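BUG: 3D viewer hangs when loading the predicted structure for this chain

Environment: internal workstation, default settings.
Expected: structure renders.
Actual: progress bar stalls at 90%.

Input used:
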Amino acid sequence: MPPSDESLAAPAAPAPTSKSAAIELSRVSKTYGEAAALNGVSLSIRRRQFVALVGGSGAGKTTLLKTINALITPDSGSVKVGGREVATIEPSFLRRSIGYVFQGVCLFPHMTVGENIAITPRRGGAPPEALADHVEGLLDLVGLPREFAGRMPDALSGGQQQRVGVARALAAKPPVMLMDEPFGALDPVTRDGLGNDFRKLHNKLRLTTVMVTHDVMEAALLADRIVVMDEGRIIADDTPAALLAGHADKRVKALFETPRRQAGRVARLLVEGEAGTEADNELEASAAAREDEAADKEGGDDA
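Structure tokens produced before the viewer hung:
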């Protein structure tokens, strides 16, 4: 496990009290020309929640995510992290206190895996002698061998690189994690495994996680809460079970109809597969019985 040395943790926004939200947006708007990327969005996220932002392309998901760590400055409205206005926090200070994982991973190709992971605490002034142990602990945490610290990024698979990206985002021990399509470029098996592993890390480290994804099924399986966006507005905000059960808004209903239909088809195929297996077993048993009967008869004739 990563050492508890406080020097490894970047300065963070103050931890929210039990009565305050970890992240709070109030009437946030952002326009590009005449296009409204965010239109008066208000959203409150409790500590330790895992929230997924879903919706079609251009819905405003990534814009909303980037207002949280000040990569995008809204035209109006308020964004708070840990009870403090983001606009009042020095940007580099803020971003060292918030983990950020994105689809392209973007590891520095000229740095080793260990150097990539250690870059944030090193820039924050962490002592060099503590970094090696810290990197090893983070590699353990994301399920990679410690010897990977000395490898270059191009020697790793896509899934391994994304795990390094998660380790790098966790290096400064942030209480908040932002993820923008983090698993979108991976094959289905790797994507499912990495998603499940991150959900376990979210629980273990008591993170507050906000994840943008186009995959509604991924959102339903990983998140505690799903926020649906369309044209810069929030049009639904509920638990995965509630949204899968149905929604009055036709846009939301259509979005969740596909995973519901796919889940139903898979369930039917599994039932058919089990029925087919039982039938095959019965046929095999019947054939074996006939063979035994024939062998017994042949033995009797020989006698």
